[in-house]
Amino acid sequence: MKNSARNELAVCGFAAVKTLEKNNPQKIQRLYFTKERAPLFGGLCKKMASSKRPYNQVNDPKELEKLCGSVHHQGVVAMIEAPEIPALTKDDTARWAQNKEFTILLDRVGNANNLGAIVRSAAFFGIKNIVIPLDEAQSSVTTSSYRVAEGGMEYVNIYSIRSIPYLLQDMKDKLVRIGTSLEGSVSSRNLGNFVKDKGAIIVLGNEENGISEEVKKNCDKLVMIPRGQNVKVDSLNVAQAASVICYELSLARM
């Protein structure tokens, strides 16, 4: 939940705030917690006090709900400056190509919880780069995505772009461009064969329609996750698919 007047974003959830405390405590502008959580944030409160930033124990958990707009605050809310998603630059992509890095590109993934889950999987498997389009259909960083990421937001870099096809065209012969699709001819089990000694950009699509036709045309390979035998479910949720793909990518570097 954003506080537009103060240009703040509420970060809630125990793991999310604890990881924020560990990695970027300077981001926290204000801190609120319940009596039960107070002993677990003593060190952070000392840091807040030394830099004259306010922190408060609340008597009613509903106060936290008002701050973050969610009942899933888990007894703590940290207010940070609303994050600005930096625009992707040529220097960024050149570094990815040089270092043979993996990057996840989201094609209009609209659900904030899905974005958070994808961030969590990327962080768990050591993928540091995520790119999102400047599109109304694409979810950006929110209170919900921060909470669902369970601290993963502190371990990834999120960039923005205006055009997915343009980026993919620019990455031709620099990174392996891989789209995920039910129509893919390559099994995710064989993904490592294409990226073992190369950097790659992996496109995950919209929850309802997947990746667009224009995006598919600009991919080197289309990958599908094989289903079990005699199953009737057509596809995985995009966040679940991301976990499978991130796992397969991690195997390529072992």
Q: Kindly provide the radius of gyration, computed on alpha-carbon positions and rounded to a whole number of angstroms.
A: 20 Å
SS elements, strand count? 12
Mean pLDDT comes to 95
Give, in spatial order, the strands making up the sheet with the most strands.
Answer: 8-7-6-11-9-12-10
Helical percentage: 25-40%
Q: Give the distance, in angstroms, between the N- and C-terminal Cα atoms.
A: 39 Å
Which sheet architecture does the biggest sheet show? Answer: 7 strands, parallel
Tell me the β content. Answer: 15-25%
Shape: elongated
Order of helices and strands: EEHEHEHEHEHEHEHEEHEHEH
**What low-confidence regions span 5 or more consecutive residues with pLDDT below 50?**
none
Q: Count of DSSP helices?
A: 10
Helix/strand/pairing category: alpha/beta
